[in-house]
Amino acid sequence: MNKELPGALVEEIGGTIGVMEEHVDFLKERFSLITMKEFKENKEHLADKIVCIFNWANKPDVNSELLKALPRLKVIASAGAGVDHLDIKMISSYGVKVANTPHAVTNSTADLAMTLLLVAARNFMEAHQIAVSPNTVRFHANWVGGDITGMTLGIVGMGRIGYKIAQRAKAFEMKILYHNRHRRPEEEKSVGASYCERLDDLLQQSDYVMLVVNLSPETEKLMGKHEFQMMKPSAMLINISRGLVVDQEALVEALETGQIKAAALDVTYPEPLPRDHPLLKMSNVVLAPHMGTATRGALRLMMEEMVQSMMDAVNGLPVSNEVTGF
Ligand SMILES: O=CC(=O)O
């Protein structure tokens, strides 16, 4: 460990949830790294750690015990936009800031949102199975899908990612509706979107409903029985936000009873779903393993955004991307 550099606690180096191998040198040039495993084995290393890096995917257990062991800790840098895995109030009671990476993830997540929309709309999963089957055929009615051009996309949550999705949808010549806490006049104008103050209005008119909100007490189970009843039977739900934004039992029922046509989900609860979960067996469901940010570019940008926040904290500057308002 290089004693000259500020100390950083990281979950792990390499592995599936750790700092990617290709980012290790970049980090090591700036910080003296210690992993959680090393920390657990030898706690006295910790006292001089002033920053932490965590990946939401590991649902890191940032508890009082850890915070007490890090008396000089200034900031927890969390990869990704969502911070629902961290108890920010509790963390800030220790004088520690939390920073996320809201800019790094916008394009990759918006791209995945459109991927899910296209894959579900065009019955791509089934088409792929037919294409690779030994008994493949020249034409199959099951791969006749829904249209995109001219159809209505309802975006629930017009933040950074929602807006990027709207830009992509505009290029696909879709009609765009959005529901958001606040109206976004400039964004509306630039993509030709219409604001729906009531979520029900958006649900009733949309052919594709895209969930892009942060998970919070206000948005938990935002989509329940009533909301599915509001949707068109021909409509599809796409969720790239957090699983808990949807009442999953109500979703299963809506899919089983034909209240809605299909769902494409990057997020569920829990993740991954138990292997006997009904959503895994439905032909009108496309599942991805929570991979909105999983591109090389986004991972690199996330690391850069986290390092910026950590360097700010080390240098006593206002911390970039500090998460406030909890
Ligand atoms: O889920 C990924 C993120 O929060 O960016």
Automatic annotation (TrEMBL):
CDD domains registered for this protein in UniProt: GDH (cd05301)
Alphabetical list of Pfam families matching this protein? 2-Hacid_dh (PF00389), 2-Hacid_dh_C (PF02826)
- Cellular component aspect of the GO annotation: cytosol
Q: Does the keyword NADP apply?
A: no
Superkingdom of source: Eukaryota
D-isomer specific 2-hydroxyacid dehydrogenase NAD-binding domain residues are 114-292
List keywords of the entry alphabetically: Oxidoreductase
Q: Which residues form the D-isomer specific 2-hydroxyacid dehydrogenase catalytic domain?
A: 20-323
Q: Which Gene Ontology molecular function entries are recorded, alphabetically?
A: glyoxylate reductase (NADPH) activity; hydroxypyruvate reductase [NAD(P)H] activity; NAD binding
Q: Which InterPro entries match?
A: D-isomer_2-hydroxyacid_DH, D-isomer_2_OHA_DH_cat_dom, D-isomer_DH_CS, D-isomer_DH_CS1, D-isomer_DH_NAD-bd, NAD(P)-bd_dom_sf
Homology family: Belongs to the D-isomer specific 2-hydroxyacid dehydrogenase family.
Descriptive protein name = Glyoxylate reductase/hydroxypyruvate reductase
Q: What's the source species for this entry?
A: Engystomops pustulosus (Tungara frog)
